[in-house]
Amino acid sequence: MDYKAIQELIKTLSQSNVTTLEIESDGVRIKMCKDENKRKSNNEVEFIKQDEKIENVSDDASTSIPKENEIVVDDKNIEIVKSPIVGTFYESSAPGKEPFVKVGSKVNVGDTLCIIEAMKLMNEITSEVNGEIVEILVENEDMVEYGQPIFKINTKS
Q1: Where is each Lipoyl-binding domain found (predicted)?
Q2: CATH of 78-154, one of 2.40.50.100, 3.90.1150.10, 2.30.300.10, 3.30.450.40
Q3: Is 18 exposed, middle or buried (0-12, 13-18, 19+ CB in 10 A)?
């Protein structure tokens, strides 16, 4: 690869929204990166397909992308129970004991749904609504994050 071709690649990279370019040709490998903090817009996505021009697609206001650990529910009767702390999820009070709730269990306000252990403290998570457990979103002994959805409760039941 000659000097002029490298200059052309640098020029092309600087004028595009691509942040990293890696090329291997004739036994020479070149990797170019540019500072992402200097990008014009953080919500532009660039799609590159073979034999097509580059096109920029910007997010519009009507498009919403769920964040990590976010559950999107269209049914207004479904209540999502989220973890109030970071810790370990336990479905029962002790190993081998019956879980507090299962899918299909009827729950009332104040009923224990699970325990989340944080720093050797056992925190009982209770229901804030009356309804039926329709989905348990984590497994026993899973680590859960603050705000992570752990149960879906149908409040119309």
Answers
A1: 78-154
A2: 2.40.50.100
A3: middle
